[in-house]
Amino acid sequence: MGYKIKDISNKSSTVEPVQFLSSKERFLFFVEENRAMVWGGILLVMVVIVAIVTLSWLNQQKQEQAWELEGQAQTVYLDRPLDDVKKGQENIQKASTMFKEILDQFSGTDSAEVSAFLLGNSLMEEQNYQAAIDIYTSFIKQYAQDRIFVGLVQQRLGLAYLLNGNREAAMKAFEAVLANPHALNKDQVVFELAKLAEAEENVAEAVIQYKKVVQEFPLSPFASEAALRLKVLAPEEAKDSPAPETKDTGELKKGTSEAKPVKNEGGEQ
Question: Where are the domains positioned within the chain?
Answer without folding.
Answer: 64-126, 136-184, 185-245
